Amino acid sequence: MKVLLLSCNTGEGHNSAARAIAEELGRRGIENVKVDPLSFLSEWIEKTTSNAYNSLIKHTPKAFGVMYKTADIISETKVSSPVYYLRAGYAKKLHDYVVDNGFDAVISVHLFGMEAMAGVRKTTGLDIPFYGVMTDYTVYPFTAESKQDGYFASHPELAEALAEKGIDPTIIHPTGIPVRAAFAETMPQSEAREYLDLPQDKKMLLVMTGGVGCEPMLKLCDKVVEAAGGEAFACVMVGKNEDLRQKIEGRYGKNGAVRAIPFTTEVNLYMKAADVLITKPGGLSSTEAAVANVPLVHVREIPGCETDNVRFFGTHGLSLAADSDEQAVEYALKLAHDPTAATAMRQAQRATINPFAARDIVRIVCGK
Predict the structure, then answer these.
(1) Residue 39 region by backbone torsions, left for phi larger than 0, else alpha for psi between -120 and 50, else beta
(2) CA proximity to 90, closest of 32, 42, 49
(3) What Cα–Cα distance (Å) separates residue 317 from each residue in 292, 320, 358, 366?
(4) Paired strand residues for 151
(5) Radius of gyration of the chain (CA)
(6) Residue (of 363, 335, 361) closest to 349 by Cα position
(7) Distance (Å, rounded) from C-alpha 268 to C-alpha 181?
(8) Nearest 5°: CA angle at 33, between 28 and 37?
(9) Proportion of the chain above pLDDT 70, given as a percent
(10) Global pTM?
(11) CATH number of 185-352
(12) Cα gap 127→194, rounded to integer Å
């Protein structure tokens, strides 16, 4: 069997979900390839779309929230989305790519990919199964028009929400959001810290805030140092932001109360080492945290999907939601020093989130 994975670079979460599914496919010896459906229009359009999206959520998140809400309202009127019409521009190219490379099924982790395959079937009649994976705890605007052969919902409650949008309940599978198997592996905190060369005698706050700029991040770091009083330290995942790394190291020292962690494939180990995680409420990062079983504080939500993610996690006791950086640090330190509250949150995470969603998705798609 050979599977095509469709993802987009509009936020790293979608690619993380695709990697989790690819990992499970590879483990079963199933060949797979990941592509961005927009690349079939042109490389320029693919990059421009991704850059425009990432710039919008970083610099004007409220504007993104307004656009998202508007799209949700329009989708209720049954008017087709702009993406619905855009897909006609590359349906034939995508069809030829699927056929020429002998793919037996398609899994999309982004609405663009779902719309693209629906367009391929409408235009060419391609008769292979294709599936959509929801990567947030909400139903995206226009999801119902994507006409997949199966939908993988982030939770049973979201399966019900998909059905309410008119999707056939028999093709909705409440698997959960796929994350890499490493996040579900158990490791004692002390062992993770030893491996990462981190102090054993202090509380550790892990900070992941996506594309937040340097100055806002430094202000958050200052609040950690001020509130912790030397009893805790923070590891900040700076990714490929070299400017932020240098500023953190210049401000606090390389091994000071705040440590800058450059891009790493061992995020799961930092979660195992942490007492609490402070993060934006992205669907993937939040699910990874819940699977890794680390107490969680949400902050700096982007209106739209992340608002629904915060609501879902809060309702189920999976996280605390902070209205400001100062409150986020306050909540994080309380969780770090309150074993009862931290244990209750971990238990809620285990009871609510399926750590084996990637496995379950592959079983349904591939029948094994």
Answers:
(1) alpha
(2) 42
(3) 16, 8, 24, 34
(4) 132, 172
(5) 21
(6) 335
(7) 10
(8) 140
(9) 85
(10) 0.89
(11) 3.40.50.2000
(12) 52
How sure is the predictor about 215, in pLDDT bands with cuts at 50, 70 and 90? Answer: confident
Q: Reply yes or no on domain 2-176+356-366 having CATH 3.40.50.2000.
A: yes
Q: In the structure encoding, which two tokens stand for residue 18, read together?
A: 């695709």
* DSSP-assigned states of every residue in 180-228: -GGGGS---HHHHHHHHT--SSSEEEEEE-TT--HHHHHHHHHHHHHHH
Is the fold of 2-176+356-366 the same as that of 185-352? Answer: yes
Angstrom distances, CA of residue 76 to CA of 56, 218, 333? 24, 41, 42
- pLDDT tens sequence across 177-188: 999 999 999 999
Per-residue DSSP letter, 350: H
Compute CA distances 325 → 217, 248, 329, whole Å: 9, 17, 6
From 268, 194, 191, 200, select the one nearest 237 (Cα to Cα): 268
CA dihedral for 24, 168, 284, 94, sign (positive or negative): positive
